[in-house]
Design brief:
alpha/beta, 6-stranded antiparallel beta sheet, globular
Amino acid sequence: MSEIFVKNLNALIVSQVAPHSPAAEAGIRPGDLLKRINDKPILDILDYRFYAAEESLRITIQRDEQEIQITLYKEPEEDLGLEFEHELGDKVHTCKNRCVFCFIHQQPKGMRRSLYLMDDDFRLSFMHGNYVTLTNITAQEWERILEQRLSPLYVSVHATDPILRARLLGRKEPAPILPQLRQLADNRIDVHAQIVLCPDLNDGPALDQTLVELAAEHRAITGKRSGVCSVAIVPVGLTRFRSKLTPLRYADRDYARALIAQVQHHTRRFRKMLGTRFAWLGDEWYYVAQYPYPGRTHYEEFPQLEDGIGTMRLFLEELRRITPRLPRKAPHPVSATLVTAELPAAQIQQMADLFNRIEGIALNVCVVKNHFFGGNIHIAGLLTAQDILHQLAQFPSCRSTVFIPSICLRDNTLFLDDLTIAQARESSGLNLQVVGNSPRALASALGLLPPKSSSPRTQGSAWVVDEQLAEYQMTT
């Protein structure tokens, strides 16, 4: 969603009604509030899809101050023909945990408003791959998950030991997760798990225990139709604004290398036991370890792409695929600077070098260090306008045209530090161009290939990752 702050109407606002659809024939109009279907409250798009699947519908809408009852009949698979302003008709469900690694507690004031929202909403988990702890849901919400069979869900596990998990989540009472995972599996709901790894807390033997116990919930072991399908292991994100919080340390090169070896020991066994590697490390671990990114087959079907795992490999694969299609000469000369962050800098330079072989193309790369957040933040999705503009001004060979990956902005418009792209252009005097997050998108922007819209599954093959992935630390 481009805007997650919606009014708590407990209803969906109709934005469009398809002509000649059942909804249009019944007289539903844009601006109507869809409140109930067959006496069931409609709080979000999931409620709508679930309850509107019936053939006979008794619909309650609100128009102005009046409630209107509508009864209609439709074919079993026929769509009602409604579109809505937002996916949620009530507020985002927020998190009451005090996670020791929470990114939101490490931010200053004055950032983009959405960055301060601590969501722990199972609906966003199902719809957008946000990770949820399952510690903030009510009994009624839990029953809804089971009834509507919202599969898969993306669950922040962090540790399977209930006491350690409680410590990580900042809760006083134990926080067991395995019983919930088993109940989800019993109701044919798959889970993709996440571990935010904090050195000296949930690593070492605790990580071994977590991986082994999660693997025991895989359907290859349990014989159930559903279970824990995969595990993502990502590093804790720490900023310079971290103060009066649980002390945490960075992972250095040697730590990252030892961790990779530890996880590889498990994944070799998992492949024999489960038929899958099951556990994957975030791209940052290979960056910190100064190791090359694994090959395409390592990531199997990219089950943890929602957590940014494998995005650098997808980037390189897409670059390889488009290379034979690139022309020898550009249709018009382009001289520009590419902005990127530290983590993907080598791959962006590789792309620039490839495009520079084309007659008429002259690209260089400005690697922007994240001074604003500091700490161990080196992904493009967390770059601010002030860092980008300051370092472009200091970049000796900056061109007048600068390409900024759209991952750095919300809706291609707003930077993290609440500066718009228009304001950044005016302030810098540069021709700042927002470009899509893939090699194909840049090639199209340069006029080397025709534009092509990305499919949902390939949008992760980005300069780094989609904004949602870049902010994975915030949604744990």
